[in-house]
């Protein structure tokens, strides 16, 4: 989970010198009336600025929440083997770990697993992100990822039954994409979308490939931009993104955003769709998927591990391992 950064306006810090009268005047001297007044005024201004910012952000978030397309009601929670992504088709679910693929039946029983999914690649890879499924083929964004840096990005297609690699799309290295956190299939426009987690200009875009040919189709710019993108899913004409934008240390929730795409697929307007304040414990949001046949929305969420530069490093009090859970919601259009 990313640590939020906040800049607080106020007087510059000063060296601590033991004095009977607290303050920062000349060394060994009590502050003058003017200095005390200036400090008090500055502190008051800082407090007012912070309070105004908090109110403004809360109002903006409330306004955004009114633009959500769906209502979500938590129905069930299932512990799973992977920490990255989830997808569904027919009576089966698939879950990706960073280095695993697992297939479940409709009751969440394991029916197949691949713990060595990187056989058959020409470039070195070690990481799977969020995944999607189309016609019993799994679509993965794979890469070599270490301490927040990704390389050797590829779109890979796996068999939905054997969980073995079938083919790889040729990746365009000149697109500006620096990482792949998630992937989604839009069967209506025959487009594969990829997200980037890294906090730079490259993450303001979704990168598009042709579902049938594998050719690069261009990139979609999103506005406004929300940081630390994780999963992406397509449902009923819109794209949905999960962002790891809360601070688990402060029990802040992560969010899902909806992207309304223009006709030529160059621009996308972003709206807040859901705040996840109903998970077991705040941690790291990951992949997502919609089950249209059942009217269910599924979200993968991790808890227990401290996340540094995108990787689990150590645990919170009360945990000796990271727990991966799929939250299943009933959802309906407003």
Structure notes:
- The two termini are 31 Å apart.
- With 334 residues, this protein is mainly beta.
- A hairpin with a 2-residue loop joins strand 14 and strand 15.
- The N terminus is likely disordered.
> How are helices and strands ordered from N to C?
HEEEEEEEEEEEEEEEEEEEEEE
User: Residue ranges: pLDDT <50 for 5 or more in a row?
Assistant: 1-60
Biggest sheet record:
8 strands, mixed
Tell me the Rg in angstroms: 23 Å
Report the mean per-residue pLDDT as an integer.
Answer: 83
- Number of helical stretches of at least 4 residues: 1
Question: Based on the structure given, which CATH architecture is correct?
Answer: 7 Propeller
Strands, total number: 22
Strand content: over 45%
Query: How much helix, percentage-wise, in residues?
Result: under 10%
Corresponding CATH superfamily: YVTN repeat-like/Quinoprotein amine dehydrogenase
Secondary structural class: mainly beta
Order of strands, main sheet, comes to 10-11-12-13-17-16-15-14
CATH topology: Methylamine Dehydrogenase, Chain H
Tell me the domain tally.
1
Morphology: globular
* Measured distance between first and last alpha carbons: 31 Å
Layout of strands and helices, then pairs:
Layout: H1 33-65, E1 70-79, E2 85-89, E3 92-96, E4 101-104, E5 110-114, E6 127-134, E7 137-146, E8 149-159, E9 165-169, E10 182-186, E11 191-195, E12 205-210, E13 216-223, E14 229-235, E15 238-243, E16 255-261, E17 267-275, E18 284-291, E19 296-303, E20 305-308, E21 311-315, E22 323-333
Parallel strand pairs: 13-17
Antiparallel strand pairs: 1-22, 2-3, 3-4, 4-5, 6-7, 7-8, 8-9, 10-11, 11-12, 12-13, 14-15, 15-16, 16-17, 18-19, 19-22, 20-21
């Amino acid at each position: 989970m990313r640590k939020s950064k906040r800049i607080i306006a106020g007087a510059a810090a000063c060296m601590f010198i033991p004095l009977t009268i607290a303050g920062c005047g000349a060394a060994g001297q009590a502050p003058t009336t003017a200095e005390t007044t200036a400090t008090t005024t500055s502190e008051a201004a800082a407090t007012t600025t912070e309070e105004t910012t908090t109110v403004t952000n809360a109002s903006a978030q409330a306004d955004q929440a009114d633009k959500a397309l769906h209502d979500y009601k938590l129905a069930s929670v299932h512990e799973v083997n992977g920490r990255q992504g989830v997808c569904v088709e027919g009576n089966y679910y698939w879950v990706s770990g960073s280095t695993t693929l697992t297939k479940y039946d409709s009751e969440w029983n394991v029916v197949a697993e691949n713990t060595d999914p990187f056989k058959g690649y020409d470039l070195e890879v070690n990481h799977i992100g969020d995944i999607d499924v189309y016609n019993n083929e799994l679509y993965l964004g794979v890469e070599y990822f270490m301490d927040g840096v990704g390389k050797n990005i590829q779109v890979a297609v796996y068999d939905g039954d054997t969980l073995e690699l079938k083919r790889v799309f040729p990746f365009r290295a000149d697109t500006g994409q620096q990482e792949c956190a998630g992937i989604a299939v839009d069967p209506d426009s025959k487009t594969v979308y990829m997200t980037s987690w890294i906090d730079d200009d490259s993450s303001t875009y979704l990168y598009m490939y042709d579902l049938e040919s594998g050719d690069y189709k261009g990139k979609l710019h999103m506005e406004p931009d929300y940081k630390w993108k994780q999963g992406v899913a397509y449902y009923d004409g819109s794209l949905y993104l999960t962002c790891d934008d809360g601070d688990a240390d402060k029990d802040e929730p992560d969010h899902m955003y909806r992207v309304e795409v223009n006709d030529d697929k160059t621009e996308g307007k972003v709206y807040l769709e859901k705040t996840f304040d109903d998970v077991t414990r705040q941690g790291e949001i990951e992949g997502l998927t919609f089950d249209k046949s059942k009217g269910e929305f599924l979200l993968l969420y991790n808890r227990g591990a401290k996340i540094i530069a995108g990787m689990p490093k150590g645990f919170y009090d009360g945990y000796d391992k990271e727990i991966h859970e799929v939250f299943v919601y009933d959802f309906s259009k407003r």
